[in-house]
């Protein structure tokens, strides 16, 4: 799979500029700004209700931003329709998994390839010129990802029959198949057992290192975040209260207060 760095290195891959979102009287996001550089693993953390999911949903164009803007690779996201997200290079996983449960692992990953090559899908359907090349390229990429994600033993099994942790890897495969530049991971550690959790950290780093994919993750699991993130952004009540390396945010007084003030775990 090709690495997708057509960025000069100075332009952030993702620039979130003063976004605010309201739900009635609730200010879910209040003027949040931060950037993610190409190749970074950036974690978005904060207590329950801090606005993390709302921000992810703005990025996926599920919610419109009330004010402010988001630029991806220098291009304003608001100008693009939602169905173009995979096409421009933003992929994501969901807390409750986005998979075709009655299909096999291989077919789920293959569907991910098609979500990028929209035209390829129609070419294949109508047997237009170029269809065979796209199909064989998709099959090759699917095989590569199945190996990368250690899914070979279950490649021809139906997804619904597999353990949750394995299904989560299939979902990652589906997202990676679309060759994203930016991968949004929504609580990837949620529901994983101890062993799976350990390999998840390594896997996320491998995704960045091997494919050059930039990662933005929302995660409550602090030891995972602190172990893999280059940069951590902390939200509380819709505001950004800190941003920096794991070491910097861990010792930030407002972060300590936000986590100790409620019944949440310490960010240590
Ligand atoms: N669709 C919605 N309608 C009304 N209020 C909402 C909606 N989505 C989120 N909110 C509110 O916006 C605030 C931020 O919620 P959000 O889900 O973004 O927080 P979060 O940081 O993702 O929390 P968690 O860690 O619990 O998932 C909360 O007060 C929440 O109740």
Automatic annotation (TrEMBL):
Keyword set includes Cell cycle: no
ABC transporter domain residues: 14-262
Output the SMART domains linked to this UniProt entry: AAA
CDD domains according to UniProt: ABC_Mj1267_LivG_branched (cd03219)
Q: Which residues form a coiled coil?
A: none
Q: Name one GO cellular component term.
A: plasma membrane
Record-given protein name: ABC transporter ATP-binding protein
Tell me the organism. Noviherbaspirillum pedocola
């Amino acid at each position: 799979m090709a690495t997708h760095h057509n960025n000069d290195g100075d332009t952030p891959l993702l620039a979130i500029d003063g976004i605010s979102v309201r739900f009635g009287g609730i200010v879910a996001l209040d003027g949040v700004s931060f950037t993610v550089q190409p190749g970074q693993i950036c974690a978005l953390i904060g207590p329950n209700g801090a606005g993390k999911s709302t921000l992810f949903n703005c990025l996926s164009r599920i919610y419109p931003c009330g004010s402010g803007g988001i630029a991806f690779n220098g291009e304003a996201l608001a100008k693009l329709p939602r169905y173009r997200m995979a096409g421009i290079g933003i992929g994501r996983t969901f807390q409750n998994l986005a998979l075709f449960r009655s299909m096999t692992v291989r077919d789920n990953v293959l569907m991910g390839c098609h979500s990028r090559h929209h035209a390829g899908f129609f070419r294949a359907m109508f047997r237009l010129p170029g269809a065979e090349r796209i199909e064989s390229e998709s099959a090759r990429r699917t095989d590569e990802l199945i190996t990368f994600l250690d899914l070979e033993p279950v490649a021809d099994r139906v997804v619904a029959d597999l353990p949750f942790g394995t299904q989560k890897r299939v979902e990652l495969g589906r997202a990676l198949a679309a060759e994203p530049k930016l991968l949004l991971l929504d609580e990837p550690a949620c529901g994983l057992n101890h062993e799976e959790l350990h390999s998840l950290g390594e896997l996320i780093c491998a995704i960045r290192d091997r494919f050059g994919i930039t990662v933005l993750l929302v995660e409550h699991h602090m030891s995972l975040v602190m172990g893999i993130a280059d940069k951590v952004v902390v939200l509380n009540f819709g505001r950004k209260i800190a941003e920096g390396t794991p070491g910097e945010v861990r010792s930030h007084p407002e972060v300590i207060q936000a986590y100790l003030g409620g019944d949440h775990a310490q960010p240590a």
